[in-house]
Amino acid sequence: MNKMKLPKFLNTRLGFFSLLAILFWVKNICAYLFEFNLGIESVRQYFILFINPIATTLFLLSIALYVKRPKVSYITMMVIYFLMTLLLFANISYYREFTDFITINTILGAGKVASGLGESALRLFRIHDVLYWLDFVVLIVLFARKKITLDERPVRARMALAMSTLSVMIFFGNLFLAEVDRPELLTRTFSRDYLVKYLGINAFTAYDGVQTYQASQVRAEASPNDMDEVANYVSDHYAAPNDDLYGIAKGKNVIYIHLESTQQFLIDYKLKDENGVEHEVMPFINSLYHDNQTFSFDNFYHQVKGGKTSDAETLMDNSLFGLNQGALMTQLGGKNTFESAPNILEQVDGYTSAVFHGNDGTFWNRNETYKHWGYDYFFSKEYYDVNEDNSFQYGLHDKPFFEQSAKYLEQLQQPFYAKFIAVSNHFPYSQFTGDEAGFPLAQTDDETINGYFATANYLDSAVEEFFNYLKASGLYENSVIVLYGDHYGISESRNTSLAPLLGKTEDTWTSYDDAQMQKVPYMIHVPGQTKGGINHTYGGQVDALPTLLHLLGVDTTNYIQLGQDLLSPEHDQVVAFRNGDFVSNKYVYHKGSLYDTATGTAITEPTAEQQQEVDSLKDQVSQQLATSDQINSGDLFRFYTKSGLKELDTTQFNYKDAETQLKEAAEKAGADSTSVLSQNNGVSTADLYKTQTYQEIHGTATADSEAAEK
C-alpha cells in the first residue's frame, strides 16, 4: 500500500467531497437494483433512478464545505457520509423484513421496530452487506497511511454556495422529470416506493419528516373538547335504522367487491359495435342490480378526491372523508386511531377480517393503514402467482386474482369481513389480447374511452366466476356481498368525447352531466331475502358503513360516523363532494352552477327561497367536510371512549406470514373451527373455482385469438 499513489485531486477538499459523493451514489444504485423492488418499467425511469441520489448527496455533503477549519470540515463530511450510509443501510435491512421504507414515525418508535423484527433481526443481514461499510475501513487506512491528507486551504464561500445551488437545481430537474412520468407524485403520494424510485431515500425521508411535523403540530393542538363537538354533530345528524331491515343479515359474512373505476352509466349499458350490433357490457352485474335479493342504489355517488381508490376505501370502511389534498391513507393511515368496520365487527360480533389485493402491499400505504383499521390479514401481491402474462402495471388481473384468492378465503374463520380489490378496469383501459380479446371497442376519437367497455366486461366476467365459486363452496348463502364503484373511470375532460355514446352531444353537455357522471354502482346482495330492489335515495360512499352495520344488526348510536343509513327514512339525501360541491334530491351544485336535480335545467336566477335552501345545503356540506377534517387532522378518535371499543394494538398484526397464521387459528379453534376448509374436513374448495377466457365463453375461433395477439 506504501507504493500506491492516489490522484492528487483527492488531497483537496473538493476532491474528497467528490469521492464521497461518488461512493454514496454507487451505494444507492446498488441498493436500488439489488435490494429494493421498485418496479422500473422504462428507460426514463431508469434515468431518473440513476440521477435521483445526486442532488441530496451533494446538498448534504456541501454543508461541510462551509466549515473553514480543515479538521472540522473533514470530520463533518465523514459524519454526514456515515449518517447517509446508515440511513440507506437501515432501509435495506427494514425492506428485507417489511418490504417498505423507514418513516420518521418508525425511527421515532424504534423500540417498536426492534420488537417487530424480534430474534430474526440478525437474519436480515447478508454477507455482501459488508460492501456498504468497507469504504469506511479503506478511508481510515488511507488517512492513517497519509495516502489522503487534509487540505488546509478553506473552500471559498462562493464555491460552497455554488455547490449547494447546483444540488438544488439538480433536484428540481429531477422533480420535473418525476412529475412528467408520475403526475401528482407529491400531492397524492401513492406509495413510498414511488417516492424512493423517483426522488431517492434522502428526499423521501425529508419529505416524510415535513409531513410528520405538520401532522404532529395539528395533532398536538387537538383536545378532548374537539371530540365533544364532533360527537354532538354526529348525534344531531344520526339517522335511525329501518325497523323492517335492521338485523336481516345478522351474523353473515361480509364480502366487499371493489369495482375499479366503474361508473353507474355502465349499468344496463349496451355498446354498439361497428356493425350496429349491441353488446351488453356487464350482464352479470346487471342481473344482480335487478335482483330482489339486492338493495341497489341508482343515485349513489363517489366522494373521493386526490386519494382516489384509497379515499374510497377510507369512506367505505370508516364513514370519513379523505383529505382535501393528498391521501389520508398515505399521510395519516399508519398514525391515526380509527373506528373502522373490521375493528367494530371483530369487537362486537367476533368477525375475522382480510383484504385481498394483487398489487404491492405498500401502494397507498395499505400495509400500515390496514393495521390501524383492524384488518387481521392482508393478502397482497406476494401471496399470488404474478407474472407478465396474468398482470399489468396495477397488479394481477381480476380472473386469476379471484381464483387464486379462493385458497385463502376458505381458511378464514367465519363470520368474516373480506374485501377484494379488483384492478383490471383501470386507466388506461388497455385492449386485451390473446384469449381475453373479443369484446368490441367503442368508436370514438379517444382510445381511453374506447377500451373502457371491454375492461369493464372483463371485470363483470371475473365477478360472475367469483359468485359461482361462492355458491359452489357453500359461502354464498351465508354472506352479504357488497359491490361498489370506487370512483369515475372516464375523467371530466373526456366526458364530451363520451357524450355521443350516452345520447348527448358535446354542445348539450353541461356541468349537470359532469355531476351525474360521478355516480357509481352500489349494491348490497343478501341471499335469501326479497326486500331489495332499486332504491332512488341520494347518497354517497360515506353512507355505506352505517347502512351495512344496521343490516348486520349493529347498533351505531355511539359510533362516530359522518354518513347516514341509506335505508333509513330519516336519511337527508344530501351528497357532499370533497371540493364542497353537492347533489341533493332537489338541487345539483357543481362548478359554481346550480341545476334542478330532476330535470337538469340550469337555475341561473334562483328565487329568494331557492337561494336560502341552497345556502343551507352549502353550510350542511361544509360542516360535514370540516368535521371529517377535524377528526383526521387532530386524530380525535384517541380521545373517544363512548363507543366502548378497546384500544387497537397494531403490533399484533403481521401481514408477512398469513398462511401460517390461518393454520394456527384453525388449530386453536379445533373442532370449533368455522372456516370452510375445516367444515369440509380439510378438503380444499379451490378446485371448485372455474374460470374461462372470453374466447372460451363466446366460442371465438382460435385463429381470432392468434390474430389479436399479432
From TrEMBL:
Residues of the Sulfatase N-terminal domain: 252-554
Keyword Cell membrane: yes
Subcellular location: Cell membrane
Transmembrane segments: 47-67, 74-95, 130-148, 160-178
Active site: 309
UniProt: Mn(2+) binding residues: 260, 309, 486-487
Highest taxon listed in the record's lineage: Bacteria
Family membership: Belongs to the LTA synthase family.
Descriptive protein name: Sulfatase
Organism of provenance: Enterococcus asini ATCC 700915
